[in-house]
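Checklist before submission:
- one chain only
- standard amino acids only
- sequence pasted in full

Submission:
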Amino acid sequence: MTRQYVVDLSPAQWIQERVHPFAQDIGSLVPDVFESYARVLHPARLAAPDGERDVTWRQIARANRRLFHPQMQFGNVAGTWSAREPHTSNWSSTPSPGTLTITLARALSRVLVAHTSSPRCWFAIWDGWGCVGRPVLPKFELPGRAYFLAEGDVDDVTQTACEGNFWFQSASLWWPDDRAWLVATEVDLDSTYVGGAAAAIDALLTDPALEAVRADIADGITAASDRINPAPTPGHR
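Returned file contents:
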């Protein structure tokens, strides 16, 4: 099934009713109705003669002698927020904010489809992505954001939100019709957050294609949330 925009926004109402204020914690992104939560870390990249490869946050934290923990921030474990500043040689580009890669989207859908009884899935597309165009459609609002709503199958998460397929832009939120879980990729963050049953979250945490950590609904999501590793400073190695 190809993902299609819809005008009936009622499938998103339950999210509006159960999210926290903007940028407060994980509950600002994922409704506080789930048994368990996970944070999926977007990989950094390393350029090599034979092409780019993924670099995990754990590898970068180890190289910088930083603590790998659920509320760590990339700038803190890497020592900088920018690849243009001095940093360890095991990465060359920072994790992509606001979008999953196709590889991550495919891995998440593969795991999560086993934890829903519904083939139908809903996708929220942030209205601020320039590549989305400007559909003449109603939007639903969450704190600080507005979204178009689309309908499809779980595996339609690998369909880009961009017109013309110029590059891959994942949906900002997606969830099955039975609300068994929800995936949220906030536009400014380099991690994706998932709420679901304990079995679904356990499956994510143990899948070798994902770098994920167990999270709590009250965990912070901002750059100031890492209170263990030192904050990055310009030129800090």
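Reviewer check: The helical segments are 13-18, 57-64, 74-78, 102-112, 198-206.
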